[in-house]
Amino acid sequence: MSILGRAEAAGVAVCNVRAYGNESVAEHAFMLMIALMRNLPAYQRDVAAGLWEKSPFFCHYGAPIRDLNGKTLAVFGRGNIGRTLAGYAQAFGMGVVFAEHKHASAVREGYVSFEDAVRAADVLSLHCPLNAQTENMIGENELRQMKPGAVLINCGRGGLVDENALLAALKYGQIGGAGVDVLTEEPPRGGNPLLNARLPNLIVTPHTAWASREALDRLFDILLANIHAFVKGEAQNRVV
């Protein structure tokens, strides 16, 4: 029996905290997107290595720098976070498409097929739950179909991406870069191939996309409201 099932059987009320981190997660994904498109990690490394000081010109130009304007963002997951990110991208002049479920028998209005989204996107951003249908939804085959310079962002769940396939795609220049805030095991006590990669086109953050100060304030406000509602005998954000 699941945890929720056991809670229900024991007569224990369970509430959740909804939509507190929409902006925080979307902004984190957008930060990773900009940093990778403009090759920020590579330039940080070059400056630290003294390459700018040795440049014969006023600047040090190494890795390619790309604008978001005019590029295509494919969002996988059309919930609150995915829609918030889409709004940010459109404000920067990006075209946005929402990807249909993988292996879907039909494409809903307002979506493009999963395969078309993978092939068309300059940036792919994952914001969907992890389940049997989405596990390793981005694997070796999908990475091969992506544009050579495309960027993959995962602020959803670690298991959405085959991490070994992603590492190989980054090492061999199959895609342009990746930014991940989630790993298959958290915390990664046994290590993780992405943590040891030391690649200039890979950014790993420790599952902190949700944790802006403003998001934490909203989380506690909703939590307290749930408790107060329960004390008054009202159902708010109840899942059991």
Automatic annotation (TrEMBL):
D-isomer specific 2-hydroxyacid dehydrogenase catalytic domain sequence ranges: 7-240
EC number(s) stated in the UniProt entry for this protein: 1.1.1.29
GO molecular function: hydroxypyruvate reductase (NADH) activity; NAD binding
Superkingdom of this protein's organism: Bacteria
Pfam families to which the protein is assigned, alphabetical: 2-Hacid_dh, 2-Hacid_dh_C
Record InterPro entries: D-iso_2-hydroxyacid_DH_PdxB, D-isomer_2_OHA_DH_cat_dom, D-isomer_DH_CS, D-isomer_DH_NAD-bd, NAD(P)-bd_dom_sf
Keywords: NAD, Oxidoreductase
Residue intervals of the D-isomer specific 2-hydroxyacid dehydrogenase NAD-binding domain: 30-209
Similarity remark: Belongs to the D-isomer specific 2-hydroxyacid dehydrogenase family.
This protein's name: Lactate dehydrogenase
Organism from which the protein derives: Neisseria meningitidis alpha275
